[in-house]
Protein: Uracil phosphoribosyltransferase
Amino acid sequence: MGGIHVMDHPLLRHKIDYIRRKEVGTKEFREIIEEISMLMCYEATRELKLEDVEIETPICTMQGKELAGRKLAVVPILRAGLGMVEGILHMIPAAKIGHIGLYRDPETLEPVEYYCKLPADCDKREVFVVDPMLATGGSSAAAITMLKEKGVKNIRFLCVIAAPEGVEKMKKEHPDVDIYIGVLDEKLNEHGYIVPGLGDAGDRIFGTK
Structure:
């Protein structure tokens, strides 16, 4: 069973609340999202398995540790999820990257896939799905469903800010997925934005507003 992990870390909280400020510009916002992603990656990889390896230091030979088993993949949900990729790659440079693109059908309001490109061996990897904002949970839940349909079994979801409504949807549809949240906010407003939130993460990362 997956779990909900709200990261109660002073440095993380400081950075998240800093970029909520509407006067923070695109360059600074993008850089700090990258830093936040690094910190979240550190926490989200706490359960990765290690195996013994013999290494030679300048002093002697010893039994050390290295990551065992499955390799990792990062799958951002386009487009805001792209802002979290570089921070994770700083921590795990060998990770492969996939991409999932979804849009909301204006009539049904259901997420529709328009792009999906994954590493060929994605089903054998630990996959980190990333999106800065978990609002209604519709896109995130749909993206994880797509991954499962393609045979991916080991999935973790990382978001910077979440609303309770999105967390509930994810718990209901994907109870087996671990969810890592920087800060859990109060609610969604009538437009589906997280309150107090930070606005549209994609617009703020890419400077499109």
Summary: The CA atoms of residues 17 and 123 lie 36 Å apart.
